[in-house]
Amino acid sequence: MTNLLTLQPGALADYQEWLNIIKQRIVSVRMRMALSASRELILFYWELGAMIAHKQTQSQWGDKLIAQLSADLHKAFPDIKGLSASNLKYCLRFFQFYSSSQGVPSPDTAALPFGQQPVDQLPWGHNIQIFTKCRSVAEARFYIEQTLEQGWSRDVLAMQLKSNLHARAGKAVTNFSRTLPLPQSDLAQQSLKDPYTFDFMTMTEPYNELDVERQLTQHITQFLLELGKGFAFIGRQYHLEVAGNDYYIDLLFYHVTLKCYVVVELKNRKFIPEYAGKLNFYLSAVDSLLKRDDDQPTIGLLLCRDKNNIEVEFALRDMNKPMGVSEYSLVETLPDNLKGALPTVEEIESDLQQLQEVDDGNSNGGSQ
């Protein structure tokens, strides 16, 4: 690596002084990092990112500054991890992401984002996932709070980021504001998503609602993770008897936070208004047969492959039971008897190549 200082005559004293300040900061936090590794590490990375950002505004070194700093810090502290050039760039991005709307403050006054909020309660790997994948501080705040509340591992957090949970949470079309009192209506709204992503399941056409139910219950851990915190599984095809007739609820849950039963009905087709009427009936039955005096009103969730929001709003307008409608998606595969009928990638490329050769031949022939 080219030594940055040889390319910047006259900057040696200034750089050495600045480098010594960072070395002193590292020495001062080493003991605290050992005692409170995660929080102190985040605090240090934030401070380091602020110092790098501030230094870059005072010089023309650009990215070369980070490479030189990494080399010098490794030389001084060979036993400390996290001083690579790539991680120093993450420190800079960490600081820039949360301070972008406020300009670049002095490194002596730069405070962690959200003041004493929970950004410093997450491991560094979680933080990297969030500030590199989120498009705004508000979105980042959502994932920070959800991670702490639900105890997500880094892999689970990555999955929720990939599935764009922030854009889906609380987006189901519901009648909760009219059928539930505050704050129960707000809590219930936030507990539902739209759409639900069941990409842990692979279905082969043709399949029906029972096939989807069976797959969901076979993958109950992933299903509960997608539903969100608080859902406790009661049963599939849950039997109810009303006026001597047998009825079966697709999936029945109890939500421990909302303190209510949740009836989930699956439809492997587009929403039609009749579905809301049947769900309303099931909610009445559960309220009469299962709900205890200290339970909140039962909530219904209708999951369809497609829906028109205006049509759903009309269908729910006069329903007296709290319910919501969401779409769901899953991975579909072709039946074995059709797989061989489709061309492979190599065959498509070969056909395209032949077409190109024909076109070239026609072009050359036309020019003679």
Characterization of the model:
β5 (260-270), α13 (274-289) and β6 form a beta-alpha-beta unit. The protein has two domains: 4-166, no CATH class; 170-336, Trna Endonuclease, Chain: A, domain 1 (3-Layer(aba) Sandwich), CATH 3.40.1350. Strands 1, 2, 3, 4, 5, 6 and 7 form a seven-stranded mixed sheet that branches. Helices cover 52% and strands 17% of the residues. The model is unreliable at 338-345 (pLDDT under 50). The chain contains 16 helices and seven strands. The chain has 368 residues and is α/β, with parallel strands linked by helices. The protein is elongated and about 90 Å long.
Features:
368 residues; alpha/beta; Trna Endonuclease, Chain: A, domain 1; 2 domains; 52% helix; elongated
Short description:
With 368 residues, this protein is of the alpha/beta class.
What's the SSE blueprint?
Blueprint (H helix, E strand, L loop, with lengths): L11 H24 L1 H21 L5 H14 L8 H15 L24 H10 L3 H14 L3 H9 L2 H4 L4 E2 L1 H4 L4 H8 L4 E9 L4 H10 L1 H8 L3 E12 L2 E11 L4 E11 L3 H16 L9 E8 L2 H8 L6 E11 L2 H4 L5 H23 L1
Parallel strand pairs: 2-7, 5-6, 6-7
Antiparallel strand pairs: 1-7, 3-4, 4-5
Helix pairs in contact: 1-2, 2-4, 4-5, 5-7, 11-12
